[in-house]
Write a structure and sequence with these properties.
By secondary structure, the protein is an alpha/beta fold. It is about 35% helix and about 20% strand.
Length: about 350
């Protein structure tokens, strides 16, 4: 199995180029729905707040490659009698000058997509919600998702229609053949971003050689040792991947907070992770007494060496992820130090 790892989850330049080729540099992941530009009912202060939210959510994706919006969005009435193109490029468009300049810059870094037949909006709904005709952007994101891509539709909090929740949802669409179901990510808040990238890993079964090109976005509170290798697990990559993403996500989201809330009570932390369907534990007293085994838990990262004294296990007898306590000098991030079948105890 190919090896791929980079400090902080970043792959080498060769890894990144390989990922770009595999995922296609034109394979944008986020589509900005036209509802994001609906500011018709907002007060001046509400408009400023809305623009701040839109910029905060869009900015990480507006790099010329990851995000797109639909060409018809330019004709959307975003303020009374003002279309988006006028709002962005005219000083009389009703947007504060500083906000207009920043949003103009971000939109210019998104690909402008001309709709085709597959993007024609058709009624859709989530769960038992109301059937609604989506915008061009939402319809386009659904069309791409239906082709097997992991896609996110940017629908900021002030976009109340459609009233779909943030995160991964199953959308029922009306089609010429009847109906189908499509898995789509709804992006409303900055905190939704890591959940999206974790879904990319599992939804598309990202190849092992590209795994570490996504980890920095998927697990922003974690550090990844250069020595990590996915083939060090006993299980095959396809078997390990869903568990690995779930475990890393839970460590990223909960471990430091749970330690603090439990006052360092390891038993309580273990129980809380068990409630999440995950088996983690600190090293046993016997392991700590075994100098050779204890040394195996030391991992170099940057200019320091850190002990990965906790581990998560996929099965009772195989596949371990060893990780550290929060590291103060790295902003209380947690080092993922070892992927292994089983270390000595």
């Amino acid at each position: 199995m190919p090896n791929a790892a980079g400090r902080n989850g970043k792959g080498t330049e060769q890894d990144l180029l390989g990922a770009s080729a595999a995922l296609d540099a034109d394979d944008y992941r986020v589509v900005v729905a036209e509802e994001c530009f609906n500011w018709r009912e907002l007060t001046d202060s509400g408009l400023r707040d809305a623009l701040d939210v839109l910029v905060e959510v869009l900015q990480p994706f507006a790099d010329g490659r990851k995000a797109a919006f639909m060409e018809p969005a330019y004709d959307v009435e975003c303020r009374p009698s003002v279309t988006l193109i006028d709002a962005l490029y005219s000083p009389d468009g009703g947007l504060p000058r500083d906000k207009r300049a920043l949003l103009q810059q971000l939109v210019s870094k998104c690909r402008c997509v001309i709709p085709d037949e597959a993007d024609l909006p058709q009624p859709a709904r989530v769960a038992e919600g109301s059937w609604r005709e989506p915008s061009w952007g939402t319809a386009h994101a659904l069309a791409r998702a239906a082709m097997g891509r992991a896609m996110s539709c940017l629908l900021v909090p002030y976009a109340t229609e459609p009233d779909w929740p943030s995160g991964w949802v199953t959308v029922t669409r009306t089609t010429e053949a009847g109906q189908d179901e499509v898995k789509l990510h709804v992006l409303r808040h900055p905190d939704d971003v890591p959940i999206f990238w974790r879904g990319v890993l599992t939804h598309e079964n990202v190849p092992a050689e590209h795994f570490f090109t996504i980890t920095e976005d998927a697990f922003p509170r974690l550090l990844f040792a250069d020595s990590l290798r996915l083939h060090h697990f006993k299980g095959a990559y396809t078997e390990v991947l869903p568990w690995l993403v779930k475990l890393l996500g839970a460590i990223d989201d909960h471990f430091a907070r749970m330690l603090a809330e439990c006052g360092g009570d390891q038993t309580q932390v273990v129980r809380r992770f068990s409630a999440l369907g995950l088996d983690i534990s600190p090293e046993s007293p016997n392991t700590k007494k075994n100098a050779k085994a204890w040394e195996q838990r030391n991992v170099r990262y940057g200019d320091g060496t850190y002990r990965c004294e906790w581990h998560g296990k996929r099965l009772w007898d195989r596949d371990r992820v060893h990780f550290s306590l929060p590291i103060a000098e790295h902003g209380d991030r947690i080092l993922i130090g070892i992927f292994v079948e089983h270390l000595a105890t």
